[in-house]
Amino acid sequence: MTAGITLSGVGKVYPDGTRAVTALDLQIEPGELMVLVGPSGCGKTTTLRMTAGLEEATEGEIWIGDRLVNALDPRERDVAMVFQNYALYPHMTVFDNIAFPLRAHGLRRDEVRARVQRTATLLGLDGLLERKPRALSGGQRQRVAMGRAIVREPQVFLLDEPLSNLDAKLRTEMRAEIAALQRELRVTTMYVTHDQVEAMTMGTRIAVMRDGMLLQHGAPQVLYDEPDNLLVAAFIGAPVMNLLRGRIERDRNGLTCVLGSGRLPIAPNGSAAELASYAGTDVAVGIRAEHLGEPSAGPSGRPTLQGRVRLVERLGAEQLVQLAVDAAAVTADGGPTESGRTAAITARFDAHAQVTPGELCEVAVATERLHFFDLATRHAIRGRD
Amino acid sequence: MAAARYTRATLVRELGFVAVAAIFCVPFYLLVAIALETTAQADTTPLAFPRPPHFGNFSTAWRTGGQFGLGHALQSSLIITVSSVAGLIVLGSLCAYTIARRKSRLSDVVYILFVLAIILPFQLAIIPLFVELRHLGLVGNYAGMIVLNIGLLMPLTVFLYTGFIRALPRDYEEAARVDGARLLRTYARIVFPLLRPITGTAAVLLAVIVWNEFFVALIFLAGSRYQTLPVALYTFAGDYTARWNLVFAGVAIAIAPLLGFFVFAQRELIRGFTAGVKG
Q: What interface predicted TM-score (ipTM) does this complex get?
């Protein structure tokens, strides 16, 4: 039976004083696939390794099901792990690799054979059991690593960037395969990746980490639509969210967001009340590419921004248009960028819109979908709903 | 590609290599040639290859070398070498594994002590060592010789293994731990097999050293029935100072087993020198 994972106030400080993880609270429900995502060095792998028992948590408690596992050896935690480079034992055949965890737990010979056989069939490894790892392709090695993890039917899977060694096409395939396998086996899974696309497509929920801290966790769509934090906003989504420095002003129609020479009236929605307290100050304004479009396409009367077209990427179904607008860009940390008073923003246009690089172009802004962030705290400015 | 062309420079370089190789072969030629000469030939024309070759030297050497013949010494040498090398590999790799993987100050200190022990001449301690071992009943028998060899060569063994293990990725061991293997199983099933290249290197190196070891064997096996080959050859050389043909025949017999082992193990040896572990 699969068990949930509860991390409560978990922290890691290395003996040399380096802090890798700070006060991490995270609950992973039984059967859920939780993706830990973040830039390299954000503490996600350390968190995974603490859950596996390969690193000691210096603070907090780690629970698997109803067992406090802080003091338990990896062997006693009943977890299985897939390593970034698979760590297939090079001197053993595929069969012996998959059988290793069973033998280590002292299963009978015929039981081992039967379970390895069943796992191999499930993963399509039937013809490869006598091969050594070096005679396998990348995708096959990946499967063997998965096989070694699932053969023991552990309570928890821990996957550490399992797809990063594969080429793009295979990665997409294996992404679907692993997600399907996880759904089929319904085993609680902690999945670490730095690739936000992987996180979005695979996770039941996503936890975004940065500098050892958990920034936000929730369903992928929630993180995409309502990022709590400038860092999450900048990290989740491709193309990345456009982030500009804007000033909130109050006039007789209500609140307006001033972006360089453009003025965008702010729709009186949930965040308006919170935003009112920022009147007269600068904030970070986030706009997703799909909320910037050609003026003729959306509902009429939308406010527009003007910019010079720098680049047009034709993707077949749509075009990504990069424009230079006269507003300052903001980094994920809330600071200014090197580009000064002009920022490059990306808009998503219809595939058949006529745009040519160098021309001046108007883009319509879906102002009700704007995101606002406090420049100092990086927190989203929005009403409590 | 210019580099692939056979030019005059290539020819000169090749001739150079051939010359160096030939120089390395000279002692071996002398060994074989003199071992096949009669005593008179060895005195008058030692450098010429004998015609006809005189194979009788080998049987004379085999029968009369050492106290009980070279056959007996060969047996002693084999027992001592195989046991010592096996002990060194098992204990040395375990010890190095602990030193390489434990992140404590103590293991650094222990490692430095081992390295120091390679440099220090053990001969300085030979007298107390002899007294101590005689108290323990370890003089004049196999067990004593084996213990002594293991002790004296442990630093070198640990040094060789530690360097290799430090370069070995930890992932395999961590995978084994998560898979549920305990320390000893992880070591025996995962780590030790991965050490094969360095085990090959260490085995050849240590076997050569133990096999050729003379000084310790001379002192600690003195007067016993367990003379090793080098000691047997020494007494033999003493008996026939002027008869180099017999000495050389004895040497040829003595190095033959080692040569065979080297040819057998050389693939692993080269791998240990050049390659790490490939997944």
A: 0.82
CATH of domain A5-235: 3.40.50.300
CA dist B271 to B80, B268, B275, Å? 27, 5, 5
SS3 for A288? coil
pLDDT confidence tier of residue B37, bands split at 50, 70 and 90 = confident
- The answer to whether residue B1 scores a pLDDT higher than 50 is no
Give the number of other Cβ atoms within 10 Å of residue B103's Cβ: 8
Is the preceding omega at residue B27 within 30 degrees of 0, hence cis? Answer: no
Residues A131-147, mean pLDDT to the nearest whole number: 93
Please tell me the predicted confidence (pLDDT) of residue B150. Answer: 96
Domain that holds residue B185: 75-240+257-274
For residue A342, count other CB atoms closer than 10 A to its CB: 18
Site of tokens 């309570």:
A155
By the 8 A CB rule, do A212 and A22 touch?
A: yes
A contacts of B193 (beta carbons < 8 Å): 89, 91
Please judge whether B177 and A86 are an interchain contact, meaning their C-beta atoms are less than 8 angstroms apart.
Answer: no
- Domains of chain A by residue range: 5-235, 242-373
Q: How near does any CA of chain B get to the CA of A152, in Å?
A: 9
Fold of A242-373: OB fold (Dihydrolipoamide Acetyltransferase, E2P) (2.40.50)
SS3 label, residue A379? strand
Question: Measured between beta carbons, which residues in chain B are less than 8 angstroms from residue A87?
Answer: 169, 171-172, 174-175, 279
